[in-house]
Amino acid sequence: MVRISIAREHGNILSVIAHYYELTQPRIIPLLLVVTAASMWIASSGKVDPMLLLWTLTGSTLASASAQTLNCIYDRDIDYSMERTRHRPIPSGKIEPIHALIFGIVLAAASFYLLAAFVNLFSALLAMLGIVFYVVVYTHFLKRHTPLNIVIGGAAGGMSALVGWAAVTGTISSTAWWIFLILFLWTPPHFWALALTLRDDYAKVGIPMLPAVSGNIETGRQIFTYTVLLILSTFLMYDPLQITGAFYMCAAFILGAIFLQKAWAVLENPNNQTTAHNLFTYSIYYMILLCLSMVVDSLPITNQLLQRIQQM
Ligand code: HEM
Ligand SMILES: CC(C)=CCC/C(C)=C/CC/C(C)=C/COP(=O)(O)OP(=O)(O)O
Q1: pLDDT tens profile 46-84
Q2: How much is the CA Rg of the chain, to the nearest whole Å?
Q3: Of all protein residues, whose CA lies closest to atom 8 belonging to ligand 2?
Q4: How far from 262 is each of 220, 229, 256, 274, CA to CA, in Å?
Q5: pTM of this prediction?
Q6: Which top-level group of life is the source organism from (predicted)?
Q7: For residue 182, which ligand has an atom nearest its CA?
Q8: How is the chain split into domains, by residue range?
Q9: For residue 246, what are the contacts with CB-CB under 8 A and spacing of at least 6?
């Protein structure tokens, strides 16, 4: 009997932990960390201190988890009404909003402490700014009020690049702003592609996402426009700034061409949900691979290989 009740209690604790984990929307965090790590890599010219990387990524994880948790508290009413989100821990009654609030504040405080103590104060302040921007500016002021929500909200994701840069250099240089810009311009095609498949769900709860307000054709046009701007912005990281080299440039070109082709398919057929979902999925791989190519580009072995190819 005692064994059974201990096992049951153990199971309960595990399921509580699982609910809190789910509250942080963990699937989005790795991509934010990839951006932060790439930014740190470039800022340190490929010689990033492993401990600094570890503390920065830990602090950034806690900051993102806090931001997502606070967003889930604020949006619990619409999350309850939307098919995609009604199983989240707060709308499904697994976690009380007040407990989530305490959890979100503890995460933010832990993030601030770790970044300020083991990285630097500036990166800690930027991470807090990221939380405030996402929760107050995007979730409170924009999301329910304007179809520009996603365009301006893209700055929240861009903050992860600034945190990474500030962690290494203690400042924000123009290169950090280029990476910020890439994230900023990537967000509309990333999200609107998905929004094309969720139009009715958003319309039902009165969220003015672009497809619900302006229709699929206009959304397809805007996706294409932002994709072109995104690809151009990735080229800015090459000459004359000399930040990245030929390897990055080739990768940016090929990855961008695929993005453009998929955005074109959406433009041609904005009512096709498979095409739109295809673009959404690709947008995630695109960002991972683009960041990876920045890292590979700055490895000494890449330069040696490129020089050998040139000499041949
Ligand atoms: C205003 C900005 C953004 C909005 C509105 C948005 C919205 C969304 C939505 C609604 C999903 C689907 C999640 C689900 O299935 O429940 C999603 C997925 C995802 N987003 Fe975003 N996103 C934004 C910015 C970002 C940023 C900045 C990143 C990271 C750099 C990111 C990374 C991801 C990833 C990795 C997924 C896939 C998660 C999965 O496996 O389901 N998103 N996004
Ligand atoms: C440095 C730092 C802490 C930056 C914060 C970055 C951050 C948490 C970005 C999240 C972007 C995102 C997934 C928005 C979706 O919100 P939504 O409310 O539209 O999506 P939902 O409907 O799935 O809740």
Answers
A1: 889 999 999 999 999 999 999 999 999 999 999 999 989
A2: 21
A3: 64
A4: 11, 15, 10, 11
A5: 0.94
A6: Bacteria
A7: 1
A8: 29-299
A9: 306
